[in-house]
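Problem 12. The chain below contains 197 residues. Write out its predicted structure in token notation.
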Amino acid sequence: DRWQVADAPNDALLAFNSGQFTGRGPWGWMVRNGVEVQPPGRGPLAPAVTQDTAGRMHFVAAEAIDSVRAAGGVQFAIQSYPAVLLGDGEIPEPLRTPGQGVDLQHRDARLGLCELRSGEWLTMLSRFETLGGVLEMLPYGPTTPEMAAIAGGLGCVHAVLLDGGMSGQMLLRDTDGTTTPWAGLRKVPAGVLLTPR
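Solution.
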């Protein structure tokens, strides 16, 4: 099955596509309603974002995923890469030095998820808007290091990029029910929904 924000149910307050994917489907760790749907992927800048049974969200570094899995209590989880901020807003070394596996020059539309210093969470979507929105769908935007700087400037302490480019999409529903969608150019293997408790 393929998903897009237009598929989000009417009670979704926020919807966006999840992490990277392969030809077969979503990449990396996925937990849905307490059931592990897919085991973790492996990579140094591939953290997970989880929600526990109490509804609290957590940023889980790649090297800590196995211990979090073993401890249990994960209600939802997604995994993606690359992490652009680690610890207290630290930009990872592969984003500061060329030749370490991350393309530092490529510009693209970006979608990211971050934890703020306050403990709140923020979803970020970059879109290239000019000529009255005519070029809004153009997959052009910040580099990965620039996205790290944007996340840091917004007060994020941990941040990871989700699948951007042609896949990047988000829907926001206001308290009066008004929706603002930013559609992607293609359907994706998985999405994330925030619904009222």
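Discussion. The longest strand covers residues 74-79. Students who got a different answer should revisit the alignment rule from Section 12.3.
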